[in-house]
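Question: Hello, beginner here. Any chance you could explain the protein record under this note? Any guidance would be welcome.
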Amino acid sequence: MNGIARFSVAAGLNAERALLQRVCDGLFDCQLLLWRPTGQALVMPGSFERRPGFALASQRCAAQGWPILLRDTGGEPVPQSPAVLNIALACALPIEDEAGKRIVIAYERLLDPLALWLAEHGLRAGVGAVPGAFCDGRYNLTLEGRKLAGTAQRWRRSRDGRPAVLAHAAVLMDDWREPMADIVNRFYHACASDLRCAADSHLALGERLPGAWSEAESLSDRYQRVLAWQGLELGARPLPCPATGTVAGPPSPVL
């Protein structure tokens, strides 16, 4: 099954929460969701709400057309917009898996299919931190030493006691680097933070792959094949529309 769902940013975050909940409830061992925002927002961990200056920063960002939304995973502020492809993979891991390796395993499951897909299009991806990138991290997916995708995880426990993870990647598909870096810097400034990011630390896939969105329509097939090699079978049932949001465009492509 191919396709990319269209959600508002809030509904997309809810869809990812529902994805992890279904794995925790034992309905599926592994589910995938690809989605693209219909609007824009600045998304950050819920802990930011307690930071000095948050209320003022929220007002200023909303006035610039970037309302602030809170997510369950950690990290720093991340701009979400129609320029971003979100990849959410929820899995339950065997209890016998070594606890110290679970984070790495989850990121490998998330990024290996994406890196292989990029290689099929002649693009060699790397993994690592990129100075000056917004929400920088060790498990960024990079091209030419610049950040292509940011990653995050959220861990819970399934009903049968297994560790369950939602691993997420936000891939910059279109060149919105300047406005995205600008709104993150405006947020930091309003919060009296010295942190700043730079547009040139990022690279959009569309800058190197013509027709990136059309090519990405087949990305779920690549995930299905690679995960099958790893002994994981993606669930066959579709994900219902989140109660607090609606789907704009084609139905969810959850496998």
The helical segments are 9-24, 54-63, 102-120, 177-190, 212-216, 219-229. Residues 5-230 form a domain with the BirA Bifunctional Protein; domain 2 fold (CATH 3.30.930.10).
